[in-house]
UniProtKB/TrEMBL annotation:
<feature type="domain" description="DNA/pantothenate metabolism flavoprotein C-terminal">
    <location>
        <begin position="10"/>
        <end position="219"/>
    </location>
</feature>
<keyword id="KW-0460">Magnesium</keyword>
<keyword id="KW-0479">Metal-binding</keyword>
<feature type="binding site">
    <location>
        <position position="166"/>
    </location>
    <ligand>
        <name>CTP</name>
    </ligand>
</feature>
<keyword id="KW-0210">Decarboxylase</keyword>
<dbReference type="GO" id="GO:0015937">
    <property type="term" value="P:coenzyme A biosynthetic process"/>
</dbReference>
<dbReference type="GO" id="GO:0046872">
    <property type="term" value="F:metal ion binding"/>
</dbReference>
<dbReference type="GO" id="GO:0004632">
    <property type="term" value="F:phosphopantothenate--cysteine ligase activity"/>
</dbReference>
<feature type="binding site">
    <location>
        <position position="148"/>
    </location>
    <ligand>
        <name>CTP</name>
    </ligand>
</feature>
<keyword id="KW-0285">Flavoprotein</keyword>
<protein>
    <recommendedName>
        <fullName>Coenzyme A biosynthesis bifunctional protein CoaBC</fullName>
        <ecNumber>4.1.1.36</ecNumber>
        <ecNumber>6.3.2.5</ecNumber>
    </recommendedName>
</protein>
<keyword id="KW-0288">FMN</keyword>
<feature type="binding site">
    <location>
        <begin position="129"/>
        <end position="132"/>
    </location>
    <ligand>
        <name>CTP</name>
    </ligand>
</feature>
<feature type="region of interest" description="Phosphopantothenate--cysteine ligase">
    <location>
        <begin position="15"/>
        <end position="226"/>
    </location>
</feature>
<feature type="binding site">
    <location>
        <position position="102"/>
    </location>
    <ligand>
        <name>CTP</name>
    </ligand>
</feature>
<keyword id="KW-0436">Ligase</keyword>
<keyword id="KW-0456">Lyase</keyword>
Length: 226
């Protein structure tokens, strides 16, 4: 692989990519979110589209420009993200790059919560649907299901376990411990974890990682064909 190698053609194939954070409402004016920038997911969607794929990008709120040349589905919550992904199936490739909130407020208030004599409200949380796992087990499962693993310790160990637990094909493991400064940043250091083992990728711009992933996807489909 070389950064300036032309992108392989994936014409005729459909990819669904999730990106960004999700926003989980507390009440009509407040939400729980995370620091995901959407840079990696948006870059992957753009690189796959540049290789000729039809791309559906399902994204939570980000500062990234709406990318051209793809079907863009903006959503806010994890439940909305799952519904949009489900509606976009079938696909040949799924890339779960979103930082989906693990929990949402069990019953978000219909009206703005007010301060009162009772003191601060207790937030009762409930688990969100696991979109990557749902896609991996879906009757319309894409041939290639790729997830990310954001870890702050034991990165490869956790990523390998996550790949098996989710039932996906590949995991891009991402060290997001604060000292790496990668969460929300422009660069990352990824490890491609497959059934065959671990391939470390160089520390690089997220746009370069997106092109590298596109090459790996094209290689996967070309060996399928032969
Ligand atoms: N993911 C998802 N839906 C969720 C949670 C995570 O689709 N509700 C996806 C992410 O997009 C990512 C992968 O699952 O591709 C792993 O996300 P991560 O947060 O690292 O894993 P979790 O299974 O949520 O485990 P934990 O946060 O406890 O490490
Ligand atoms: Ca999580």
């Amino acid at each position: 692989f070389h950064q300036h190698q032309p992108l392989p053609s994936l014409v005729g194939k459909h990819a669904i990519v999730t990106s960004g954070p999700t926003h989980e409402p507390i009440d009509p004016v407040r939400y729980i979110a995370n620091r995901s920038s959407g840079k990696q997911g948006h870059a992957i969607a753009a690189a796959l589209a540049a290789a000729g794929m039809r791309v559906t990008l399902v994204s939570g709120p980000t500062q990234e420009p709406v990318p051209a040349g793809m079907d863009f589905k903006p959503i806010e919550s994890a439940q909305q993200m799952l519904a949009a992904v489900d509606a976009a199936l079938p696909a040949d490739v799924f890339v779960g790059a979103a930082a989906v909130a693990d929990w949402r407020v069990a019953s978000a208030a219909d009206q703005k919560l007010k301060k009162g004599a009772d003191g601060p409200p207790a937030l009762v949380l409930t688990e969100n649907p696991d979109i990557l796992r749902t896609v991996s087990q879906h009757p319309k499962r894409p041939a290639l299901v790729i997830g990310f693993a954001a870890e702050t310790e034991k990165v490869l160990e956790h990523a390998a376990a996550k790949r098996v637990r989710k039932g996906c094909d590949w995991i891009l493991a991402n060290d997001v411990s604060p000292e790496t400064g990668t969460f929300g940043g422009t660069h990352s250091r990824l490890f491609l974890v497959t059934a065959a083992g671990v391939t470390p990728w160089p520390h690089s711009a997220k746009t370069d990682a997106a092109r590298r992933l596109t090459h790996a996807v094209a290689e996967y489909f070309s060996t399928m064909r032969d």
